[in-house]
Amino acid sequence: MLFKSLGEKVYIKQPEWKELEFVEWLWADKDTMMDVGGTIEFEESRRIGWYQRMVQPTDGTNFYCFIYTYEDIPIGEVSFHRFDHEKHLAELNIKIAYKYRRNGYAKEAIHLLLDYFFNEFGGEVMADRVAIHNTAGQQLLINYGFNLIKDSNQDIVLFRLRKEDFIKIMN
């Protein structure tokens, strides 16, 4: 059974194999991808390994979902990557298709993913590295409650949210 979690505006769900065309479209959309390093080709040859690592059965360090409106329209993706079993830390990923931005979808999708990560998966710390020019992405994380840790280098800033801070946000 694939994971699904419901919010007020959107729900997140692990995609079925037949839905992967959306990943191809999302990653190829220049407007969507300009703030996160540019477009990515999702070749047919990568799909089987990617799906097994990220969705089903997963490798135990990655977790991936689509973000849907309640009209069942996929509008983005939310996931975590590279879970460190010793530090209980993972890295956040969120992408909302450009034409669906600024509707509160990203914040809600992050909340749904973090609820799973902290309360079911066993995570303790979620981190995100954001490009210095991606001010909208940085503001989203700050508004959610992530803490700016440091400017890792000239191009990237690091944000972090601990489980105890997430619990405070929930209350």
From TrEMBL:
<feature type="domain" description="N-acetyltransferase">
    <location>
        <begin position="20"/>
        <end position="171"/>
    </location>
</feature>
<dbReference type="InterPro" id="IPR051531">
    <property type="entry name" value="N-acetyltransferase"/>
</dbReference>
<dbReference type="InterPro" id="IPR016181">
    <property type="entry name" value="Acyl_CoA_acyltransferase"/>
</dbReference>
<dbReference type="InterPro" id="IPR000182">
    <property type="entry name" value="GNAT_dom"/>
</dbReference>
<protein>
    <submittedName>
        <fullName>GNAT family N-acetyltransferase</fullName>
    </submittedName>
</protein>
<dbReference type="Pfam" id="PF13302">
    <property type="entry name" value="Acetyltransf_3"/>
</dbReference>
